[in-house]
Amino acid sequence: MATTEERLIVREDSNKGSAPVAAGVKIPGGTLVFAIAAGFATNVVNAGANTLLGVAHNTADNAGGANGDEIIEFWRREKFQFTLAGVTQADLNKKVYAIDNDTLTLTAANHTYVGTIAEIVDGNTVMVDLDPLAQ
Asked: What is the tens place of the pLDDT at every residue in 22-57?
């Protein structure tokens, strides 16, 4: 039934997120953050099995902790600068994949989809438009 009274609206910025960190994992700020199947955050690609969450806003050190002892905050959708060796202007708007938490490739096999190249900064640097929701 429709309301005729004001109601409290709960709102969050959909560009920001957070997740509990997997046991034994340290995620450095500014690196890619992934989710394992159990839903905990990690900085490991795992041959493409883990899905992208975003880029870490801060460092979360759970190296000595159990699953969920630390929380990582991350940005989900923005453009971020990454190294991508040998990139050319012809690579603009191509899909990029993570090899690890800070290394990208144009090769999809055994890697995790990250987003598309939004800008070529130079022959080894790109701006990537993250797309974690497209997985």
From this structure: 999 999 999 999 999 999 999 988 887 899 999 999
Indicate the pTM of the whole model: 0.88
- Of 58, 28, 56, residue with least CA distance to 130: 56
* CB contact set of 98 (below 8 Å; sequence gap of 6+): 32, 34, 45, 52, 104, 105, 111, 112, 114
Q: How many other C-beta atoms can be found within 10 angstroms of the C-beta atom of residue 7?
A: 6
96, β-bridge pairs: 115
* Paired tokens of 47: 């041959």
First to last CA, the chain: 36
Quick check: 118 and 40 in contact, CB under 8 A? no
